[in-house]
């Protein structure tokens, strides 16, 4: 029997429901989803830029420039130069989910909801 | 003044004690349960709650929040975990103070308890979310970016441009797949040959591949996850051809799944337990992925030919299937008629 890969259960949590975004008006929900996406990307980006060795930064620029002709070049470069790249990126998403849910839960508890 | 500061310190200690058991044991720690909850049956009001003056408590919580954010933004890797914990704790504390203040104001305005609860829920959903989830993350990102060397900051901007140039629908699809967990569930099942841990990297840094592969496939899984249908329609219209392909695939998969359940039912000569299996299968089919399928697809016999002969034969040999389905009260009328259409079409396509 095939063993399913282990996934952090936090990643499976539904932020749309747990943060109350499902109760927002359609336009507001869309705006909020965009904002969450921007935050996720920023968080991941800041984490990996921080870990990137100074000496390969020029090469990363070249990889980004070649993305049009060589799709996936940036991702390939990041995986090659950042140890455990995929784990780091996924952990960043899991942390965001955990922190956001924690703050909203604390507020709801205080409100006795 | 000193007395008030000592009171605030005491409140913080009490707050930390209330939080700690959740973190360390996932439940009550009877050694640190607030004695007031036992002796009075409820938590006594804090000085701010008693006086209605929250300014000092709010300022203190905000100052702690700003301080912990600054530390977290510039912390070294080995101290990151502690700094994060302190920052999140400060965010929670500030959220609690804001909610307490709002609650006090609503009650002071003479609103009923029901209205107070409704307004607080809306306040948390909008104000607290905007300020302490979205706003705080933005401030943290700005501070972290400001601490980077100029060269890295330039690179950061260029990489961020790549993301911001995606259309809102594409960004929305990627974000929804990650935020709802749908993407991870699908990759865990081994779809598209991608491990769950690789998903986020591909979605964020190789969006073209994600969107032409897994991303649109996942869209049919958004049903019932709290996403407004208007947004789902926008995605559908953007990715029309891909969505149609996925709908057909999902439909056949759902139909095969349900058909197998029926075959088992027929072989074991239906009893109450089997009927509940039918109910489960139908509910999955009707409320889950297949819910997004246009009924016009049911007349598309080319998709239905993919259903195996044996499964179809099993369906045909059970004339009492609809009778059993009709007997299950928990299955609503629309789902019953939906399933009947599937059965009829399968039978027609096999004639």
Written overview of the protein:
The complex is a heterodimer of chains A (113) and B (351). With 113 residues, chain A is mainly α. Chain A has helices at 15-18, 26-51, 57-65, 73-81, 85-111. Chain A contains five helices and no strands. The termini of chain A are far apart. The model of chain A is unreliable at 1-5 (pLDDT under 50). The radius of gyration of chain B is 28 Å and the shape is flat. With 351 residues, chain B is mainly alpha-helical. The longest helix of chain B is centred in the middle third of the chain and has 34 residues, at 113-146. Chain B starts with a helix and ends with a helix. At the A-B interface, helix 1, helix 2, helix 3, helix 4 and helix 5 of A face helix 5, helix 6, helix 7, helix 8 and helix 9 of B.
Search tags:
heterodimer, A: 113 residues, mainly alpha, elongated, disordered N terminus, B: 351 residues, 18 helices, 76% helix
- Taken as a percent bin, the fraction of beta residues of chain B is under 5%
Distance between the termini of chain A: 44 Å
The SSE order of chain B reads HHHHHHHHHHHHHHHHHH
Given the structure, what is the number of helices of chain B?
18
Average pLDDT taken over every residue of chain A: 89
Counting helices, strands and paired strands, the structural category of chain B is: mainly alpha
Major sheet of chain A: none
Largest sheet of chain B: none
Flag low-confidence runs of chain A. Answer: 1-5
Distance between the termini of chain B: 89 Å
Q: How many whole angstroms does the radius of gyration of chain A measure?
A: 18 Å
Total number of β-strand segments of chain A?
0
- Which structural class matches the secondary elements of chain A? mainly alpha
H and E string of chain A: HHHHH
Strand content of chain A: under 5%
Number of strands of chain B: 0
């Amino acid at each position: 029997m095939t063993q399913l890969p282990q996934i952090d259960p936090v990643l499976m949590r539904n932020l749309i429901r747990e943060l109350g975004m499902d109760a927002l008006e359609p336009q507001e929900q869309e705006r909020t989803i965009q904002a969450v996406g921007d935050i996720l990307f920023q968080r991941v980006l800041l984490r990996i830029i921080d870990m990137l060795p100074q000496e390969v930064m020029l090469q990363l620029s070249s990889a980004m420039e070649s993305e049009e002709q060589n799709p996936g070049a940036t991702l390939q470069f990041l995986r090659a130069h950042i140890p455990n790249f995929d784990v780091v990126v996924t952990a960043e998403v899991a942390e965001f989910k955990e922190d956001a849910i924690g703050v909203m839960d604390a507020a709801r508890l205080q409100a006795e909801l | 003044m000193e007395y008030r500061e000592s009171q605030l310190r005491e409140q913080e200690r009490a707050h930390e004690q209330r939080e700690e058991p959740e973190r360390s044991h996932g439940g009550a720690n009877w050694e640190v349960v607030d004695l007031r909850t036992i002796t009075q049956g409820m938590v006594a009001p804090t000085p701010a709650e008693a006086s209605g003056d929250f300014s000092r408590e709010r300022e203190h919580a905000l100052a702690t929040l700003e301080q912990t954010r600054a530390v977290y933004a510039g912390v070294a890797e080995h101290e990151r975990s502690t700094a994060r914990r302190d920052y999140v704790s400060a965010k929670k504390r500030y959220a609690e103070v804001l909610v307490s203040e709002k609650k006090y104001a609503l009650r002071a305005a003479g609103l009923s308890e029901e209205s107070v609860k409704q307004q607080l829920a809306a306040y948390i959903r909008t104000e607290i979310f905007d300020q302490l989830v979205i706003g705080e993350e933005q401030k943290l990102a700005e501070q972290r970016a400001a601490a980077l060397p100029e060269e890295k900051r330039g690179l950061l901007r260029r990489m961020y441009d790549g993301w911001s140039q995606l259309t809102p629908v594409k960004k929305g699809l990627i974000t929804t797949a990650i935020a709802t967990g749908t993407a991870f569930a699908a990759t865990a099942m081994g779809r598209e040959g991608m491990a769950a841990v690789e998903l986020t990297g591909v979605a964020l840094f190789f969006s073209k591949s994600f969107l032409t592969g897994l991303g649109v496939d996942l869209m049919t899984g958004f049903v019932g996850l709290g996403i407004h249908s208007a947004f789902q329609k926008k995605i559908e219209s953007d990715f029309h051809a891909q969505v149609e392909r996925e709908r057909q695939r999902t439909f056949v998969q759902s139909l095969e799944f349900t058909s197998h359940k029926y075959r088992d039912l027929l072989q074991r000569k239906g009893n109450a337990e089997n009927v509940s299996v039918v109910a489960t299968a139908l509910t999955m089919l009707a409320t889950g992925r297949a819910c997004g399928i246009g009924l016009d697809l049911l007349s598309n016999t080319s998709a239905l030919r993919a259903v195996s002969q044996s499964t179809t034969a099993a369906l045909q040999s059970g004339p009492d299937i609809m009778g059993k389905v009709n007997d299950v009260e928990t299955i609503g009328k629309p789902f019953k008629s939906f399933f009947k259409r599937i059965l009829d079409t399968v039978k027609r396509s096999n004639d």
